[in-house]
Amino acid sequence: MKPTKKRFVIATHGGLYFVVLDEKFEISHSQLIDDGYHYGVTVDVAADCNSSTIYAYRGGPGRKDILPREIRVWNFDGESVTAGEQLPLYEEAGDIHQITRHGVRGFLVSNSRANSIDRWDPQQGLLDRIHINDFDTDVNHINSVYPVDGVVAVMLHNFRKLESQIVVLEDDGSSLKELGRFSLKDWCCHNIGVIGHDLFLNASSARAIVKIDLRTLRETGRKKLDKHTKGMSCDGKLIYAGMSDSAGRAERVKSCGWLNVVDPESLKIINQVQLTEPNRGTAFGNVNEVRLLNEADTFDLAAGVDGQALKNSVDVEQSVVAIQCRRTWIRAVDRARRTFGKILSR
User: Fold this and answer.
1) Tally of domains within the chain
2) Model pLDDT for residues 25-56, shown as the tens digit of each residue
3) Are residues 243 and 337 in the same domain?
4) Residue 340 belongs to what domain range?
């Protein structure tokens, strides 16, 4: 089959971008669609794959004065992106990370500030709020939500005291109920995607892309990189993973970002593309989200993915001793980092 161009929408701390990779996975076009902080993006692709509707969250974490928090709608006709309507968020919307479509008009929203997954409808407002661990403040730092065939997988970023975890919720279309959860080897993780029985994620603090067999919950692949990993998209054959310079929040607006083209079987990097905006000659900023246009993104709405593997994963036993040892190590490393940071700041 002849290689074809790949079109993406990429959300960063500095803006929302439209990017085209050519047949050799090099940038042939990049364009700033909207400036300002962007995070969650979800895309509806038309049945004929000739057009798409983009829903992108624009706002700012923990800073009410930075921007109005809203979901902006963009229309893609196969070649260019044009602005659509704006959907003001509900008043109690907190620090939003990922969004994804749910039902005919609705969305699922990962709300880090409220430690919840919110079901939201643009016309009816907030429909339901599912607090994780019954906390209503930012404890687990929820950052990724992934709907798959009757279930929803949620990434708990976690930090300082806990390893990252994935919570699996049953989805009957009108409510969400937790089925169980499992622990990861890393903390501060982002993104969830499934191909067959393999789960992929960004172990951001470890600067790695990780593959896990959902039948055993054992890690079967780890690609170590030299930058912070976040944002992940998949066409069913290849993974497109975002990567950025590690930077403080204020510096992330102009930090350098990359897009890695990854073979899911071997986790080999086929190509690594630096993201720059030619008209302004500037870097994109810290990459938050990557989504495909004009074709199904199996890491967005999970088209064609069987949710049974995720359902079954909650019944796989994990070593309590190993988890406790990991948590002890996380606390020790965090204390050391904080102590060292205080010494340097004097």
Assistant:
1) 2
2) 998 888 899 988 899 999 999 888 889 999 99
3) no
4) 320-346
